[in-house]
Amino acid sequence: MSGRPFLQIPGPTLVPERIVRAMSQPIIDHRGPKFEALVHDCLQGLKGIFQTERGRIALYPGSGTGAWEATLVNTLSPGDRVLACVNGFFSTGFARTAAAFGVDVERIEVPYGASVPAAQVEARLRADEAHEIRAVLVVHNETSTGVTANVAAVRAAMNRVSHPALLLVDTVSSLASIDFRFDAWGVDVALTGPQKGLMLPPGMAILAVSERAITVSEKAKCPRSYWDWQPVFERNRRGQFPYTPATALLFGLREAIAMINEEGLPNVFARHARLAEACRRAARAWELPLLCRDPAEYSNTLTAVAMPPGYDSDAFIAHAYRRVNLSLGVGLGDVKGKVFRIGHLGSLNELDLLGGLAGVEMMLREFGVPVKLGAGLGAAEEFLLS
Ligand SMILES: Cc1ncc(COP(=O)(O)O)c(C=O)c1O
Question: Which fold has domain 6-12+265-385?
Answer without folding.
Answer: Aspartate Aminotransferase, domain 1 (3.90.1150)
